[in-house]
Amino acid sequence: MLRIWPAQGAQRSAEAMSFLKVDPRRKQVILYDPAAGPPGSAGPRRATTAAVPKMFAFDAVFPQDSEQAEVCSGTVADVLQSVVSGADGCIFSFGHMSLGKSYTMIGKDSSPQSLGIMPCAISWLFRLIEERKERTGTRFSVRVSAAEVCGRDQSLRDLLAEVAPSSLQDAQSPGVYLREDPVCGAQVRRPTLPPWGGGGARAALSRRRHRSLCLLQLQNQSELRAPTAEKAAFYLDAALAARSTSRAGCGEDTRGSSHMLFTLHVYQYRVEKCGRGGMSGGRSRLHLIDLGSCEAVPGRAGEAPGGPLCLSLSALGSVILALVNGAKHVPYR
Ligand SMILES: Nc1ncnc2c1ncn2[C@@H]1O[C@H](COP(=O)(O)OP(=O)(O)OP(=O)(O)O)[C@@H](O)[C@H]1O
């Protein structure tokens, strides 16, 4: 899916947008070579050196004037259905510096219309759970966790440690860490999905893929019970507040490399009507991720030792492709 940032101020000139043709209905954009002049022009520059326009197709295209609600409904509806049916889901935004990643994922709390994907997903998930409970009698329990990956050393931080009940806090705790599986090397097997299946052919396909994938997992983070959407939203606010405190303490050059992972863990179980009437159930997770930009602060490029702050966009693309294809080697580093 593609969301186009509404260029502001001087950037909002007609010329700035004249090399991009957006067609939300066909879910595609066409990029014209600026050397050729605006599309349709027959100026002398167009004749010889212009590159052929490039067309890119997406699952959805949200133009500059798209409302937050439009982006949220176009993004989360399918993923939420899958999560409630027992599959894991993940939504994140991905792009260069200051192009609206946080605005899309988190939004602003000045009005309900400017809320982003995370608060919308929380509210809609609980609504869907209520419907599912009434229709099928399934019992649900939701927990939330939030972690930050920050800085050149990619240090991990539990963003809910401050609001976790003191019984869950332990002075000797090693904090959040990544667990590496002794058999798979730097990877561990994902838990299998609930036994009753559901979710149609796509869920069945993703279930097959999940079994063959090996992944790193975060360990030891606070997982707090959220019986209502309001409580989950409270924890989201607490995580955002903890993140902004930790960002303020980061150096200027690493501030943009803060990534926040907010996860809703959905536990569900029900009594089997046939057979011996045992219980069946499982856990699925919805990961909502606000990625940092990982780009150097303008004017400081090349100053910081040790190379880029984290994986480039194209390297992240290779990781995603490897995961989707179930590749044995995932190029995390
Ligand atoms: N669709 C939009 N409508 C209105 N304002 C927007 C929109 N997208 C982004 N903005 C504004 O543009 C600015 C940059 O957006 P934002 O901070 O979300 O970018 P980012 O990609 O998360 O930045 P970073 O690279 O620092 O993580 C913010 O002031 C934000 O409010």
Automatic annotation (TrEMBL):
It comes from the Eukaryota. Coiled coil: none annotated. ATP binds at G95, H96, M97, S98, L99, G100, K101, S102. Residues 1-333 form the Kinesin motor domain. Its main location: cytoplasm. InterPro entries: Kinesin-like_fam, Kinesin_motor_dom, Kinesin_motor_dom_sf, P-loop_NTPase. Keywords: ATP-binding, Cytoplasm, Cytoskeleton, Motor protein, Nucleotide-binding. It is found in: Cytoplasm, Cytoskeleton. The keyword Zinc does not apply. Belongs to the TRAFAC class myosin-kinesin ATPase superfamily. Kinesin family. This is Kinesin-like protein kif26a.
